[in-house]
Every structure is written in C-alpha cells, then in structure tokens.
Amino acid sequence: MGEDLRLLCRALWRLCRGEEQIRAAEEAVRILAALPPGRELAWAYAGLGALYGAEGRIDEGLELLAKAQVLGELLHEPGAVSYALNMHGMTLVERGCDGRESVEQALGIALDADLHAAAGHAYTNLQEAASRLNMFAEAERYYAEGMAYCEQRELGVYSVCLQGWRAATLGLLGRWGEAAEISAEALGRQDISPVNRLNPLRVLGSIRGRRGEAGAWELLDEALAAAQRLGEPLWIVAVRAARAELRWISGQPDLAAAEAREGYECGLGRTDPWLLGSVATWLSRLEQASGVAAELPEPVALEAAGNWEDAAAAWERLGRPYDAALARLGSQDEATLRKALAALDELGAQATAAAARRRMKTLGIRAIPRGPRPATRAAPSGLTAREREVLALLSEGLPDREISRRLFISERTVHHHVSAVLAKIGVSSRTAAAREAARMGIEVPT
Questions:
Q1: How confident is the model at residue 373 (pLDDT cuts 50, 70, 90)?
Q2: What rounded mean pLDDT belongs to the chain?
Q3: 181 to each of 15, 385, 386, 393, how far by Cα in Å?
Q4: Which of 364, 328, 351 is nearest to 248 (CA)?
Q5: Long-range contacts for 217-220 (Cβ within 8 Å, ≥24 apart)?
Q6: At CA 439, angle to CA 437 and CA 441, rounded to 5?
Q7: Inter-axis angle of helices 350-362 and 194-211, to 10 degrees?
Q8: Assuming Cys at both sites, which of 20, 25, 184, 344 could form a disulfide with 48, CB separation 3.0 to 4.6 Å?
C-alpha cells in the first residue's frame, strides 16, 4: 500500500493535482513508518520531502530528505539515495542557494549504479537549477549532456523536461524564435503531461504577448489554472509575473499590480529570491511596492532604488537583454529611453515597444522612431529553425548519426527531420538538398 501510494503520488504530480498528491505521500509515510524500516520507507520519505520543499515547507522537506538519505544508505538502496540528494539540492535552490553540488552527487550515484531514469532526472534538475540561478553557460552544458544521455536511452519524459527549461532559458536570453518553436512543438505533442506543459505555456504566452501576437492570454490562463491546481510557488509566481507584464503592456496597471501582488504573497518565504524578484520588480515599476521587504537580487534592488542604468547593466551582465530594456524604461532620461526602445525593437517585442512609445509621448519626447516594419518574408520553404539546422548539416555531407550527435537528438528524430526537409524544398536526394541549402544561403550552425 505504501509503495502504491508513493507511485500514485508521482502520477498525481504530473497531472497537477497538488492536494491529492500531498495526501497520498503523507499516507504512504504514515503506513510505512509503522512497519520495520525498509526501502519503501526511504522512498516515501524522499517523495514527501520533495513535495514539501516544492510547496515551500523547506525545513520540513530537508528533514525528510535527510532521513531518506540515511535510510537509503543503510539499506544500500542507491536509487533512493540519489533521489533524496537530487531533491535536497533542488530544495536548497528554493531557498536561494546553489544546490547543484548535491544534485551532482545524485547524478554520480545514478551513473555508477546504471540507473537511467535517476540520471535523467538529475540532468533535468541541474539544468533547471543553473537556469534559475542565471548560470546560463552551465545550463547549456547540462542541457547538452542531458539530452544526449536521455535521447540515447529513449527517456522521453526527461527529454521533454530538458526542452521545457531550454525554452525558459532561451526566453531569458532573448532568443525568442528558438524558445517559441520549442514551446509550440511541445504543446503540440499528445504525450506531454500537464506539469510538463507549464514551461511551454508560460514561455510561449510571454513571447506572444510581447510581440503582440494572438493567443497569449489563452496560454497564460491555462498555465495559471494548472499552476494553482499543482500549488507549487515556483509555477504560480512565474506565471503571475508573466501575466503582470502582459497586463502592463496592454495598459492595465491596476490589473498588473494585482497579478504581481498575488505572485509576491504566494512566493514570499517559499521560493528563491530571483523568482520572487520577478514579481517584486513589477510592484516597484507600478509604484505598488509598499510591504515588499524581502532581500532581492541586485538588478531588482537597483531598479527599486531608481538606479535604472545600473539595474540595466546588471541584467546585461547576466545576459538578459529584455529585462535590461524594461529596467531602462523606468527612467525619464530621453537617451536612456531611446536605448531601451531600440533594444525592444531589435528583440521583436512590438507590443512592449508600443508601450514604451506611449510612455515617451507622455513625457513629451518628440521624433520617436517608428520601429522596424513587420517581416514579410517567411522562412525559406517554410522550414522550422530545427529543419534549417538539419539542412545546413546535410549540406556538409554529414550522415544522420553525426547530425544526431551535433544536435543532441536521436537518429530517428533526425530521419524524420530529413524527410520533412526534402519534402518542403521539393528534392529527392541529400545531394540536391545540399545545393538548395547553398542557394538559400543556409549556413552550418556554429
């Protein structure tokens, strides 16, 4: 019964049924704790500890995870030890600490014991942790290593997780085309669980809202409903921050402040400072920051203090150009505002740029640039970004196996992409495809 309840809990988590999963996990521990200690109890402690940590009950979570690790080591149960260490590291991330060392230990145990699922789980959490800590080069490395590992072993669930956090990372870095494509592809799959839809929903919703494209609110409404059912501050705060931004873009400051306040109250004391700062900064921009007393990251604190350029420079050092542009929009200096507007135009944030132009007009600034005209030429032959990468590598004469290695995808996936590319560009051979690539000016990705 205890083991079945623990497994049920994992299924409920993937379905975003938060209250039910907690009840199942607590019942598993209650049943198993009354019996002589065994591997099932170690796993149950780890499962409940992970849920408490994600729910914001961090001290309780860490205590249960420590019990799981000790019992797992005593019983020589490497899977339970790896899981406990993995979730211990992620619970530390919720506290704002760099918990990657613990997750690295979990990965090492999983690899040594040849526990494929445990290793895939550790790779996804290392990538998530690095992304949330703004360590984007490390996130890239974990993504590449994790995708190679998971694709080779057909660990689809973890490949999807990695892709979700990849989209989130690319969104922060301003690489919106790639982020949107990954998100749209994930949302089009029939085998993706509700919890794994959360990243694609919020990322694609944000990008569409910034670009002024249709469908942004449908995505963010679904994301909020799922996040609230799940009950984890990570997702609720992230989605509220995205919704606050889009409310502001559309000229609804009161609704934007309400979204940000909901997110702040949910996350205070329950999640990491960077995530909490994502809603606190909107309260600051909307002059609703009374009661915001938490210690916040440098860029957020600088902006709250009115140091717009210093805040923007801090965001730029992290590699987050959109956040830098938003920080500059708080200024009343014309040169600073023009710099922000130019950055927004370059990113393709048409709706955000329109909001910036409204602010500049309010301040009496004249001769405001109109911005670039919408692109009129579609991608060559309707190829997706991934298909253009495959075509470029085809033009180098690479076989599917090498393309698979270069792009960190399975050979089977490469085969599907090659078939699609040949059909779209209207050729029947790889040699002809190479000639078309040269004609279209498609270059090998660096």
A1: low
A2: 93
A3: 24, 8, 9, 19
A4: 351
A5: 217/246, 220/246
A6: 70
A7: 50
A8: 25
Tokens for 171, please give them.
């969104």
Residue 400 maps to which CATH number? 1.10.10.10
Instruction: Verify that 160 and 197 share a domain, yes or no.
Output: yes
336 located within any domain: yes
Tell me: do 399 and 426 sit in the same domain: yes
Q: Which of residues 192, 219, 246 is at a domain's end?
A: 219
Total number of residues shown for the chain? 446
Instruction: Answer yes or no: is 416 within a domain.
Output: yes
- Of 289, 276, 288, 284, nearest to 307 by C-alpha is 284
Does 358 share its domain with 387? no
Neighbouring residues of 409: CB distance < 8 A, sequence distance ≥ 6: 147, 151
Indicate whether 427 belongs to any domain.
yes
Domain count, the chain: 3
Closest C-alpha to 168, from 193, 199, 140: 199
Which range is most confident: 174-188, 214-228, 420-434?
214-228
Task: State both tokens at 360.
Answer: 């500049």
Q: What is the DSSP letter of 377?
A: S
Closest CA to 234 of 280, 276, 186: 276
Q: Is 311 exposed, middle or buried (0-12, 13-18, 19+ CB in 10 A)?
A: buried
Place of tokens 């109109």: 370
Domain of 165 in residue numbering reads as 155-219
Amino acid 375: pLDDT: 44
Q: Is position 90 within any domain?
A: no
Same domain, 389 and 347: no
Structure-token pair, residue 437: 């690539």
Range in 77-86, 288-297, 348-357 with the lowest mean pLDDT: 288-297
CA distance 219 to 210: 13
Alpha-carbon distance of 125 to 230, in angstroms, equals 18
For residue 348, the number of C-alpha atoms closer than 13 Å in the C-beta half-sphere is 14
User: Are 354 and 391 found together in one domain?
Assistant: no
Q: What is the pLDDT of residue 444?
A: 65
Choosing from 219, 254, 271, the residue where a domain stops is 219
Question: For 59, phi and psi rounded to 5 degrees?
Answer: -65, -45
Using alpha carbons, select from 336, 374, 375, 376 the residue that is nearest to residue 356: 336
